[in-house]
Design a protein that fits this description.
mainly alpha, 43% helix, 540 residues, two-stranded antiparallel sheet, elongated, 23 helices, Alpha-Beta Plaits
């Protein structure tokens, strides 16, 4: 493949192969993060999130140390930082799957001279360093907005909530169409491919998420911006890229422009990172993505890269000025009371039910990066991204919607895929004893109570060994005046784990006659229905 090629052409092809290989690896790991009936998911599916030094730094600042069980996160991300210090922003140009997707979205016909300025350095590229500073400063106050802007989290969340369910739905519809047509050749082939996908990575049923249109719109907008400037996100917004840019200030890779340069500026037309200005022979290593396009297109062969010795360009040339930093610091400090105690925060929401193993709410919000991995593996599709249910501080964090799904009694998948420990991994016996809430019965809507109609659905589906829903038999008169014996359900608080299957299966369709709130959850010792000295009114 590389025979007869120059070193520069070989490096360009190698970079292309690296982008393709890592993007395929990302997709494979993403598709493997799916519930297909297995009780365990390989921990390697977290690889790209655990190799993210930006997320590792945020966790380190929020917890003031390395939390137990997150050694891999700091080891893998540390390797990326060390390599960046020597090679520059190789991750952005050679590895990052979101960078590759942005690269592809910005690809088009050969650029004319009128569009050369699309690859020229802009002072607005400093904005991402300001955003990085704000996010890190907020993390010191346990305000975690890093996952909203982290490219790996953003990509996984967008694919999970918006793209993958759409792909699954289209696949099922097309397969059903060909199955109904019953064409001699096409129908068997279509069914074969569908069953292959079904047994490899498609969930057992099509998933639906509440924020799919909103998240899909943001995802599409980011990709469309690449038509304005190639790699728009990478250049102007990405805080991960900004962190790698700071580390690349010590890079040993040097770009040289010889006297043969006639300042035709063709190199700017294909540049991905925009590290240099028009007519300038110097460049900013913090912005270079090592795509080597400039060396490939230079008609005079005046541009080259080499291993350098000596001093690096001052980092201060790339960072925002002092005034910008002061404004960013001021905005961050104003945001802290706004989100922590002001109208931007929801102090108590009884219907905010977190996954089993979730840390106490302040710690959970500080650790959760909104990557959506837990949403994707939930076998019942009950985990949904929040919008404002947890306030702005908790946007897109996971919560249960028992109308859509419930917490499978023996499932531990969400804790297995969480990369930051916001959801602690639980073994099956621990999970079965972990309470995420408590069920309540609305007697004004419950069929036996309100309408004297027999119904035992909630008790039938209750999964606990000793039923958390028991019956009290009474003789009553129905609406016709006839006497009959009915079973009236009651909840035993000490047995109920709040799994929500009773709410999900309740036959009262509009607003359930039985519902779950977060009271009695294991993670919060003060969120209790009854005080300890009051005891329980029901049998244990």
């Amino acid at each position: 493949m590389f025979r007869g090629l120059s070193l520069i052409d070989a490096m360009n092809r190698l970079r292309l192969l690296s982008q393709i290989a890592f993007f395929i690896l990302f997709l494979v790991l993403f598709l493997k993060t799916t519930y297909t009936g297995e009780a365990f998911i390989n921990e390697q599916v977290r690889f790209f999130l655990e190799a993210d030094p930006f997320l590792a730094l945020v966790v380190l600042l929020e917890t003031r140390g390395i939390p137990a069980g997150l050694t891999r996160l700091f080891v893998l991300s540390g390797i990326v930082l060390v390599m960046t210090a020597f090679l520059g922003r190789f991750f952005c140009g050679w590895v990052c799957p979101f960078g590759t997707l942005n690269h592809l979205a910005g690809y088009g016909p050969k650029l004319s001279k009128m569009k050369i300025n699309r690859g020229v350095y802009s002072a607005y590229q400093k904005a991402k360093y300001g955003l990085l500073f704000v996010l890190l400063l907020l993390s010191l106050f346990a305000l975690n907005f890093a996952g909203i802007f982290d490219p790996i989290s953003l990509l996984i969340r967008s694919l999970t909530v918006a793209v993958f369910p759409w792909f699954h739905l289209v696949t099922e519809e097309v397969s059903t169409l060909f199955l109904n047509l019953d064409w001699p050749l096409i129908t068997p082939v279509s069914e074969f491919f569908y069953q292959s996908l079904r047994h490899s990575f498609l969930p057992l049923s099509v998933q639906h998420f509440n924020q799919n249109l909103f998240i899909a719109s943001l995802f599409v907008l980011i990709l469309v911006l690449n038509r304005i400037r190639p790699r728009f996100w990478c250049r102007f917004i990405c805080p991960y890229g900004a962190l790698l840019g700071l580390c690349s200030s010590t890079s040993r890779v040097q770009r040289k422009v010889s006297q043969a340069c006639n300042e035709c500026n063709i190199c700017h037309a294909t540049c991905q990172g925009a590290p240099a200005r028009i007519g300038a022979k110097d460049w900013n290593p913090q912005e270079c993505l090592l795509c080597f396009n400039c060396t490939r297109v230079c008609p005079e062969k005046a541009v080259s890269f080499s291993w350098k010795k000596g001093k690096n360009q001052p980092l201060s040339k790339m960072l925002p000025d002092r005034r910008t930093f002061l404004l960013a610091a001021g905005a961050s400090l104003i945001s802290v009371p706004l989100f922590k105690g002001g109208p931007g925060r929801v102090l108590s929401n009884p219907h905010l039910i977190r996954p089993p193993g979730a840390l106490p709410e302040p710690d959970f919000l500080a650790r959760c990066i909104r990557c959506g991995e837990c949403l994707k593996v939930c076998p019942t599709n009950g985990l949904q991204p929040t919008l404002l249910e947890a306030g702005l501080e908790g946007i897109w964090s996971p919560t249960f919607n028992m109308r859509l799904g419930y917490c499978e009694y023996s499932c531990t998948l969400c804790g297995q895929v969480c990369p930051t420990g916001a959801i602690q991994p639980l073994i099956e016996t621990e999970k079965m004893q972990t309470k995420i809430g408590l069920a309540f019965i609305d007697v004004s809507r419950c069929l036996p109570y309100a309408f004297s109609v027999p119904c035992i659905v909630c008790e039938e589906h209750c999964p606990t060994p000793e039923k958390a829903i028991i019956f009290e038999e009474k003789e009553v008169r129905d609406l016709k005046g006839e006497t009959l014996t009915l079973k009236f359900p009651r909840v035993v608080p000490d047995r109920c784990v709040g799994c929500g299957i009773c709410e999900n299966k309740c036959p009262v369709t509009d607003r359930r006659a039985i519902y779950v709130t977060s009271v009695n959850e294991s993670r919060h010792e003060h969120n209790r229905l009854l005080l300890e000295d009051q005891g329980s009114a029901y049998p244990r």
